Amino acid sequence: MPGSSAITRITAVDMRYPLPPGAGTDAVHTNPEYSLAVTHLETDDAQSATGITLTLGEGNRLVCNAIEILARPLLGRAIEDLMADFGSVSRQIANDSAMRWLGPHKGVVHLALASITNACFDLWAKARGVPLWRLLLELTPEELVGTLDLSYLEEVLPRQCAIDLIRSHQVSRAEREGILKSGYPGYDTSIGWMAYDDDKVRELTKRALARGFSAFKLKVGSADESRDIRRAHMLRECAGDSATLMFDANQQWNLPTAMRMCRDLAVLRPLWIEEPTHPDDLMAHVELASAIAPVKVAAGEHIPNRVVFKNFLRSGAMHYVQADATRLAGVSEFLTVSLLARRLGLPVVPHVGDMGQLHQHLVLFNHIALGHEVNFLEHIPHLRQHFVHPAQVEGGVYRTPQEPGASLDLVNLSVIVA
Amino acid sequence: MPGSSAITRITAVDMRYPLPPGAGTDAVHTNPEYSLAVTHLETDDAQSATGITLTLGEGNRLVCNAIEILARPLLGRAIEDLMADFGSVSRQIANDSAMRWLGPHKGVVHLALASITNACFDLWAKARGVPLWRLLLELTPEELVGTLDLSYLEEVLPRQCAIDLIRSHQVSRAEREGILKSGYPGYDTSIGWMAYDDDKVRELTKRALARGFSAFKLKVGSADESRDIRRAHMLRECAGDSATLMFDANQQWNLPTAMRMCRDLAVLRPLWIEEPTHPDDLMAHVELASAIAPVKVAAGEHIPNRVVFKNFLRSGAMHYVQADATRLAGVSEFLTVSLLARRLGLPVVPHVGDMGQLHQHLVLFNHIALGHEVNFLEHIPHLRQHFVHPAQVEGGVYRTPQEPGASLDLVNLSVIVA
């Protein structure tokens, strides 16, 4: 390494990316402008790194302002030194004596920590000249766990238990490394946005089938319930009997409505119903998951931290853990939730607030290092032209990224911050 | 009324109030600068109104910026018209299609909604020329419930159930109106901040006893557990056998530590242990509440919304509901949680992010209109010189406020926004 990669400049950047009409719409987000609150790091040896979190436009600036405040402790730190004890750094930032009041560990301040953390991991991998998945796989169990804040998990995942879990999967790693060659399967969310009309859904589904996808997600939670049902039947007909379907209500239903709609949608054999009700409503998820079996519940896109996940995972509230490293406190808390989920026997199928750029690394680590089963990774190509190294999805499969870092660098960003 | 009190100007103001050394300190907030993110409203008939939420300094500006964005729908609205359907207004703001992503219903955006909502209730009471408690008591059950967003509570508190609950207590109101004359009892939090040394705690306790208080709260959760135990014994000795004591860990403990400390502190017969662990950890609260009985658990200061409260209230996670109208979405969601708590048989003992200014109105309503028992209201006098109408606490009792509005007007604010 040419230098210590000490962080000499931190810039928060408010990046906005308008979408084509109807793209990204769902039951509660009716007019999204995909926006990234970016943490840009520069070092004394001319490295640069990018961390992101997603917002939907208005308010993105608030997250940038929070980044500016919370990232201060990083300035001047050499990246290897920083990451050797990143669990403590993360905990210190998350528990800033004043900013903590604005969460704690949720909302704007936690989104900011996500962006900051992801930039640190990007820089770390670049400084070592390897893609993030390789960096994570090459850490010892102790080094990996040292990047995590395991506080408030003591009764379920004490530090030694996390280390042992990783170590116990080391001997069998080779059996799982084939995924690096075959690529990680994807599923397509972009066929079924809420505002798309039937013809468009059909056309996009056919095109995705032709491109190799066999799993599709449809937005439900419309004010017109019959529209949801009609579209779901249409998708099943169009995609075929063997396709995997998922329905996503984006929190729109209350519990009685969710009960009714999940039963009505069950005839279409969905793999899961996603975000059936308010993401804070643990007991509603538990009641629902029990009532609609064998239909499964997926959630996580709006579950803010490891403590809430611990509660959902332990109580039977969900079957698919949609952790998101841009909602949680970045790579670090994503890995923590992945360890929790592995310990409690649940699969992690990320929600991709990063459009899959970062998560393509993390699902490889989850499978190879933690022994998580291979599922599929959400694919949303909206922003691909804005990434320097857009995820390569071919034949419905994410090709393993080879560039150093976390694949988060954005086109034109270095010009903007210059 | 001289006019329609249409809102013509909305200003968000970042007010900071440094505290004396040690004041306001606890296990996790070590250097607080009490700060208010203020919503200031002006009307076409020269009324003005004030809403607040509390922060601890750094980050207060973020909440002000969120207020500026979220309050836009209020502009031009006549106050009676606005409040006739405030439940819908509140729901619309909380579910702003883009800003919702930053919560939902928690963190910076929800604190902003608290400030906005409280300003609306202040303006409404002033426009009618009555103190807020009287305004609320004079509303019909339908009018009161019309100010609430009851979404995601359908299985526990459907609209008609809320109306019936209020109506069922109307005939017996006269029995409870004596509280308006006697005043609502207070308890003193200011004797036991974390950074105060033993002598100071003793001196302040004696002074508070002499001023008529008989209930006291002590900060615990120190890194030095023996310090907590020693101070707790000291307080019991100083306050006497008949005093009511509460211990507040401010979320510092993990579950194993909380189990141990609550048992060690039980010999001092506290009324409750407050915020024993992470505020998102429902199951830890349930386990703890069951394990440490008959010691009771209090929480709520950091419970962000009615959905999370519904979960805590239904699961036996807490015995005392410390709802705070500056953490929840203002008066409206506070009343919603008060209805929920009444329905589920639990007492509401507010945390006072407003220093009791607003909550002195709300506990009167809770007792008289909802039949909640008389408990006591937290008393923190730090900011009293900054309020135009500081709460009058005499003989350990809050005297019923008589000025029109919600008692939130701040000294010098009209000059600042002019």
Automatic annotation (TrEMBL), chains A, B:
Cofactor(s) for this UniProt protein: Mg(2+)
Magnesium in keyword set: yes
GO molecular function: hydro-lyase activity; magnesium ion binding
Keyword terms of this UniProt record: Magnesium, Metal-binding
Domain Mandelate racemase/muconate lactonizing enzyme C-terminal, first and last residues per copy: 198-295
Matching SUPFAM superfamilies: Enolase C-terminal domain-like (SSF51604), Enolase N-terminal domain-like (SSF54826)
Entries under Pfam families matching the protein: MR_MLE_C (PF13378)
InterPro entries: Enolase-like_C_sf (IPR036849), Enolase-like_N (IPR029017), Enolase_C-like (IPR029065), Mandel_Rmase/mucon_lact_enz_CS (IPR018110), Mandelate_racemase_C (IPR013342), RHMD-like (IPR046945)
Superkingdom in the source lineage: Bacteria
Biological process, per Gene Ontology: amino acid catabolic process; carbohydrate catabolic process
Protein name as it appears in the record: Mandelate racemase
Lineage: Bacteria, Pseudomonadati, Acidobacteriota, Terriglobia, Terriglobales
